[in-house]
Amino acid sequence: MPSLIETRGLTAFYGDFQALFGVDIRLEPGETIAVIGANGAGKSTLMRSVSGLIVNRHEMILHRGEPIGALAAPDVMRRGIALVPEGRKLFASLTVEENLKVGACGRQGDGPWTLETIYDLFPILKERRRNPATALSGGQQQMVAIGRALMSNPQILLCDEISLGLAPVVIKDIYAAFSKIRATGAAIVIVEQDIAQALKVADRVYCMMEGRITLSGCPRDLDRADIHAAYFGAE
Ligand code: ATP
Questions:
Q1: What pTM did the predictor assign?
Q2: What region does 4 belong to: left with phi over 0, alpha with psi -120 to 50, or beta?
Q3: 5-232 in CATH: which number?
Q4: 40 CB under 6 A from ligand 1?
Q5: Please, what's the b/e burial string for 97-122 (b: 16 or more CB within 10 A of its CB; e: otherwise)?
Q6: Cα–Cα distances in Å, from 119 out to 42, 114, 162, 202?
Q7: 163 lines ligand 1 (CB under 6 A)
Q8: What is the enclosing helix (H) or strand (E) of 51?
Q9: Domain segments of the chain: what residues?
Q10: What is the pLDDT of residues 4-46, one digit of tens each?
Q11: ipTM surpasses cut 0.85
């Protein structure tokens, strides 16, 4: 069985600047994986590559064994791969509900997510549905960004730095929602700078540094000192 997503020797460039150097990761059906690493390690570049925002060589990214590396973002989304981007990128002039509806544009077939089920997941969004998205708190905006991605009924949810800058109580709520999203059978990739949080939720963890995977494994098999070295570099 091919993996749900596999990257093979993935490289990525911004002009002449190389941000990824041969990244190999895989995501299996129903799995939650975490990608950890310090600022600038390449985590967002990896998410942008898999979601089609950065176009790569076709054979460098496989979806169920089929090359998708050169597909543009809308075509990737139509394959059931949705991104919650770093910084949320909500539509400022739209209400909460309108932002959620935008996510439904990439919808393929039936699935568990509708406005109603997203409001069940994040009840505060129902109360605020007619407010401009940018009038919400940071945590609530993050819920809109997650809801918007879910509206396409993705099989794979890519979440870039969803807890950055949020209060611990809000982070707890957002991670509680993840266990419900997981229960629908979706596979999830979480990009996290918080190592402890990543180890808590992920089936497997990849650590990145300077555009390379420096460590990977199941949280229970990883040694704290090895993670520290893979994250910050050897002292
Ligand atoms: P962060 O947590 O800060 O977002 P990251 O691990 O997600 O870090 P990336 O954003 O993927 O890292 O950045 C990887 C490298 O690519 C960094 O050296 C960064 O400066 C560079 N980079 C990222 N975006 C661009 C861009 N649009 N143009 C040029 N270089 C970029």
A1: 0.94
A2: alpha
A3: 3.40.50.300
A4: yes
A5: bebbeebeebbeeebebbbeebbebb
A6: 33, 9, 19, 25
A7: no
A8: none
A9: 5-232
A10: 999 999 999 999 999 999 999 999 999 999 999 999 999 999 9
A11: yes
